[in-house]
Amino acid sequence: MATEQDYWNQMYSNACEQSSPALMWKPRLFIDGNQWCALYGDNLQDGVAGFGDTPDKAMRNFDLNWNKQKAVELRSGK
Question: For residue 53, which of 35, 67, 69 has the smallest C-alpha distance?
Fold first, then answer.
């Protein structure tokens, strides 16, 4: 039987997933070579991309790269 802590842990997990950059910005998802690519923007040079062996892994990698790029932009004042 689930505990109250399990309930709150699941609620927190759901909230984090719903606020992921991939869900908010909806990058294009396509196969690029032998991997899936999640791309937001016109191209790899100007946009943000994530790659993975599955669509889920590409989206998760996109989230990581989105957050890294936004942190760099904040530090550089862009």
Answer: 35
Ramachandran angles phi, psi of 52, nearest 5°: -170, 165
Q: Give the type of residue at 27.
A: P
Q: Where are the beta strands (DSSP E) in 1-78?
A: 28-32, 35-40, 48-52
Beta strand 48-52 pairing with 28-32: unpaired
Alpha-carbon gap, residue 50 to 41, rounded angstroms: 12
Six token digits for residue 64: 């990581």
Residues linked to residue 28 through DSSP beta bridges, in sequence order: 39
Residue 23: CB atoms within 10 A of its CB come to 11
pTM to 2 decimal places = 0.74
Q: What is the pLDDT of residues 14-55, one digit of tens each?
A: 666 667 999 999 999 999 999 999 999 999 999 999 999 999
The two structure tokens encoding residue 25: 């910005």
